[in-house]
Specification:
Layout: H1 3-32, E1 42-48, H2 55-70, E2 74-81, H3 88-96, E3 101-104, H4 110-119, E4 124-127, E5 137-139, H5 144-158
Parallel strand pairs: 1-2, 1-3, 3-4, 4-5
């Protein structure tokens, strides 16, 4: 018997042994690996003082509530939150309710979110301020030049005359 015959005769048992080892390993991993239950998503929103009654804030909050519902997340709100160290109480309440994402609905809260980000490492914070971008504190606002570029593209796609314009003013 030459080596080719030995090889072809021993190949089916080797494949069978390899398949059995793989099956045993899979069964072992399946029954011994603990799957941690996924933490439910709870989104907290921080609304500033005297702004929570503004119509555009209500519309923005309704949009966030609808998006939360669409992704199966719970939506939590703290209103009249000062942009000062006293605002940490609202963040503490949201965290105690299980918020793992906290969003500021206006410009501000940068320093407050930096402090909260260091305190609550298991929570992600999103702010409009582009300079606060560390660890679990992120910005969700575009840079203005990016927005203007996209506006120009949309205007170019919609024009019927081949011309577009941009109206601006200085404050």
């Amino acid at each position: 018997m030459n080596w080719k015959q030995n090889w072809t005769q021993s190949l089916p048992p080797l494949i069978l042994v390899a398949a059995l080892v793989a099956l045993v390993a899979y069964v072992h991993l399946f029954f011994t690996t603990k799957v941690e239950p996924q933490r439910p998503i709870r989104i907290g929103i921080i609304l500033p003082e005297r702004q929570s009654l503004e119509p555009w804030y209500r519309i923005a909050c309704q949009g966030l509530a609808d998006a939360s519902d669409a992704m199966g997340a719970e939506y939590l709100v703290e209103t009249d939150v000062p942009d000062s160290p006293a605002g940490m109480e609202a963040i503490d309440r949201l965290h105690a309710q299980g918020a793992n994402i906290i969003v500021s609905a206006t410009y501000g809260y940068g320093d407050l979110f930096q402090t909260a980000g260091q305190k609550y490492l298991d929570t992600n914070f999103y702010t409009i301020i582009p300079s606060h971008y560390t660890g679990n504190v992120r910005t969700y606002f575009v840079r203005i030049y990016q927005l203007r570029y996209l506006q120009g593209i949309l205007a170019g796609l919609k024009t019927k005359t081949g011309q577009i314009g941009f109206i601006s003013y200085d404050l």
